[in-house]
Amino acid sequence: MLKVSIYRYNPDTDSAPYMQDYELDTEGKDLMVLDVLELLKAQDPSLAFRRSCREGVCGSDGMNISGKNGLACVKPISEAAPKGKLVLRPLPGLPVIRDLVVDMEQFYTQYKKIEPYLQNSSPAPAIERLQSPEEREKLDGLYECILCACCSTACPSFWWNPDKFIGPAGLLQAYRFLADSRDTATDERLSNLDDPFSVFRCHGIQNCVNVCPKGLNPTRAIGHIRNMLITRAV
Amino acid sequence: MVKAVTGFGRSGLYDWFIQRVSAVVLVAYTLFIVGFIFLSKDFSYASWSALFEQRWVRVFSLVALISTIAHAWIGLWSVITDYLTNRMMGGKATVLRILVEVLLGAVAVFYAVWGIEILWGV
């Protein structure tokens, strides 16, 4: 029997959040955490969580799994609950809407700030803007981000200043466009980041790297942004 | 772009740069002083005051003092803007933050003046 403890909060009926315990017979199978949630929801339809693709692509089911942020759909219970006890909480730091569902507004506001789209002031070519394989290679490790928010909600700097610090996810994407050979807004992008909060609240503790379910490295991307800022200012 | 007028240099890059440069100065000064205390054969009042008779030692000490003040301001400013935020505490956070900043500023000025007095006063 797998013991599962889940953070429950329904603002319509509960005055405060609480942990609810469940038990589930996994029949010896190494289920994914999302499978566990689906089976429990069959028992208790009031349980609320987000999910969509169930294969680590959409980024909907980011949550705090036994103390570490991750995607429920790609986290096996053998890893998340090696001693037979699984603890599920919503992503830390963001306002809870209900149970494991959080309000992602602050996260998206920061993402919007870095203008996550290609900007090019030169006239559009007849067919497309070409890149060499080497230029394209620079985007590897950046474009794969699915915006699940596991990294930003694992970051203390984002917990304290979610309205000012862009956060690892947004900064990884900021560098994705800074590194893109087809983007010509590099200088404006850097100018928008050169304040004491947007980039420089990162103190390099690498919680983001530790939790990223896609194995990406936001700390390294932030380092690249810092180097670009230094290079143009020294 | 987030506005911040009470940061050391108002630009995150500038603060970051000063923080690193001042850290290097402080490491060099610490090694110099600790090295002098433990490596000199006849460490005494005479050797200590002879050391500080030299102008370059006084200048180095002043640079280290200024580095301490800059380093402390940038570091503590980061701490208070992390923990004393309006988001967590409401409007009183602004008052509290300004109070702490004024206090830090007063301590910084006091140490700077006192340090110069000591270095050039003997």
What does this protein look like?
The complex is a heterodimer of chains A (234) and B (122). Chain A is an alpha+beta fold and 234 residues long. Chain A has helices at residues 33-43, 77-80, 105-113, 133-137, 156-160, 167-178, 186-193, 207-211, 218-233, and strands at residues 2-8, 18-24, 62-65, 68-71, 85-89, 96-98, 101-102. Helices cover 32% and strands 14% of the residues of chain A. In chain B, helix 1 (12-39) packs across helix 3. Chain B contains five helices and no strands. Chain B is mainly alpha-helical and 122 residues long. Chain B has helices spanning 12-39, 45-53, 55-83, 86-89, 92-121. The radius of gyration of chain B is 18 Å and the shape is elongated. In chain B, 82% of the residues lie in helices and 0% in strands. The chains are: A alpha+beta (234), B mainly alpha (122). Chains A and B meet through helix 5, helix 7 and helix 9 of A and helix 1 and helix 3 of B. Chain B: It comes from Microbulbifer bruguierae. Chain B: Its cofactor is heme.
Question: What labels describe this entry?
Answer:
heterodimer; A: 234 residues; alpha+beta; Ubiquitin-like (UB roll); Fumarate Reductase Iron-sulfur Protein, Chain B, domain 2; 2 domains; 5-stranded mixed β-sheet; two-stranded antiparallel sheet; 32% helix; elongated; B: 122 residues; mainly alpha; 3 helical TM bundles of succinate and fumarate reductases; 82% helix
Task: Give the spatial strand order of the biggest sheet of chain A.
Answer: 2-1-5-3-4
CATH architecture of chain B: Up-down Bundle
CATH topology of chain B: 3 helical TM bundles of succinate and fumarate reductases
CATH class of chain B, named Mainly Alpha
Reported CATH architecture of the largest domain in chain A: Orthogonal Bundle
Distance between the termini of chain B: 48 Å
Query: Which ranges of chain A are low-confidence, i.e. pLDDT below 50, for 5 or more consecutive residues?
Result: none
Structure classification of chain A:
alpha+beta
Averaging pLDDT over every residue of chain A, what do you get? 97
Rg calc of chain B: 18 Å
> Helicity range of the residues of chain A?
25-40%
Taken together, the total number of domains of chain B comes to 1
**CATH superfamily label of the largest domain in chain A:** Alpha-helical ferredoxin
InterPro entries (chain B): SQR/QFR_C/D, Succ_DH_anchor, SuccDH_FuR_B_TM-su
Organism (chain B): Microbulbifer bruguierae
Main location (chain B): membrane
Membrane topology (chain B): Multi-pass membrane protein
